[in-house]
Amino acid sequence: MIELPENLSIAYNHFMSRQNIPHELQPYFRKWLRFYVDFCKRYHHPYADQESRSKFITKLKSKGQSEELRQQAKAAINLYYEMLQAKNISTTIAEEKTDLQQTDITGAQESNCLVTPEEIISGADWRWVYIKLEEQIKVRHYSDKTLKSYRGWIRQFQTFVKSCDATTVDTEMVKSFLTFLAVKRQVSASSQNQAFNGLLFLFRHILNKNFGKVDGVVRAKQRKNIPTVLSRKEVDRIVSELKLPYSLVAQLLYGCGLRLFECLKLRVQDLDFATGIVRIHDGKGKKDRTVPLPEALKEALQDQLKIVANLHKQDKAENYDGVFMQGRLDVKYPNAAREFPWQWLFPARTLTFVPEEGEHRRYHLHEKHVQNALKKAVDKVAIPKRATAHTLRHSYASHLLQAHYDIRTIQQLLGHADVRTTMIYTHTVQSTAAKDAKSPLDF
């Protein structure tokens, strides 16, 4: 069951209050709206269509829901329709992304149609801002995560300024918003900086305004956290509790120092057994690099390629439309999506239907599946550390440093743009000079 997008939930709560829906009934109305959105998503029905509403009520009847509950559900959906019609709001709802392929398929266009309570009250329309935001992000080939992040901060800023005319916002409003984040919301320094970058992008590339100097902002306290590092024995214990393909994913994260997405986005052709390297394409910052292919994983990786080959053969027999391709590669190489070298090293279990194209395509393993499997494994071996997929990358860097690898070499292997980022790992291991030092308690 999906959760309602936050701003839709806020708007619906506000509208229920305006329509004097009894407080004790409001939780049930929210529940029925959530069920309705989930129903429309699951069966590919329009979100605001009379036929969709009728089909939903019929579905409830087939599930044995009483007449009283069906009437309550109908009232909740009717209220949602009234909210949309109040300002002739578009009927498309943004779904929470439950899989990575939806980033490529639906993108941000759906969320452009979400509304905030302020939009319902004042009639302000910021949808053109979000449409232009998506265009400008894609022109610059920024990642989908950047788009999602900037959109989220701009939406919070829109709520903060009560959806005033977007063309009238100024630097003073930005100062107040950033101070509000630090003082009232108590966000981290990195979140405040991310919000600043999102609003800077808004001014420069969407509103075409001079951002000016932003002085006098209360800054969130900057903290340098030392990464959690696992010992080699702890890594082995975690891997032993994982099943394929998660165990192999974990071994690559640790054995090659990959970020989770870098690992999941590996394709068959990225493994070069002849030269003993793994190619990482479109890493953080759209940078490519190579890392040594672990000798200990060669046999397991070759077995994984056999699994992928069998799945690919089955997919072709069922006349699937190929794997998802990044950017415009499917236009440049029309047949590549169905060719073996382009298949994912860790394919998703099922095909994904793309309604706009009427196609069935395969995506890679979902990040949340890996994260959940790792969490269960860590809990099972009872390691007293907060270990995640990224902890395996931290461990890789720290163990290389312990083995006296040069810091510049580690920087290149990790794909860091600045060696100062890599220097944090000097705090995760004892220096050579400190190895023989003892605590006064041990004298």
Outline of this structure?
The chain is 51% helix and 5% strand. It is mainly alpha-helical and 443 residues long.
What does this structure look like?
It is a single chain. The chain is mainly α. It folds into 3 domains: 1-99, DNA polymerase, domain 1 (Orthogonal Bundle), CATH 1.10.150; 124-223, DNA polymerase, domain 1 (Orthogonal Bundle); 227-443, hpI Integrase, Chain A (Orthogonal Bundle), CATH 1.10.443.10. 51% of the residues lie in helices and 5% in strands. The strands form 2 sheets. A 3-stranded antiparallel sheet has the order 1-2-3, with no helix packed on it. It has a two-stranded antiparallel sheet with strand order 4-5. The radius of gyration is 25 Å and the shape is globular. The termini are far apart. The model is unreliable at 87-123 and 431-435 (pLDDT under 50).
Helix content: 40-55%
Provide the CATH topology of the largest domain: hpI Integrase, Chain A
In CATH terms, the superfamily of the largest domain is Intergrase catalytic core
- The H/E string reads HHHHHHHHHHHHHEEEHHEEHHHH
What is the CA-CA span between the terminal residues?
60 Å
How many helical elements?
Answer: 19
Record the strand order, biggest sheet: 1-2-3
Radius of gyration over alpha carbons? 25 Å
Q: What is the name of the CATH class of the largest domain?
A: Mainly Alpha
Mean pLDDT score:
80
Architecture per CATH nomenclature, i.e. the level-2 architecture of the largest domain = Orthogonal Bundle
For the largest beta-sheet, the strand count, sense and barrel status come to: 3 strands, antiparallel
**Fraction in beta strands:** 5-15%
Low-confidence stretches: 87-123, 431-435
In total, how many beta strands?
5
The number of distinct structural domains comes to 3
Basic shape: globular
Return the structural class. Answer: mainly alpha
What is the subunit organization of this protein?
Answer: single chain
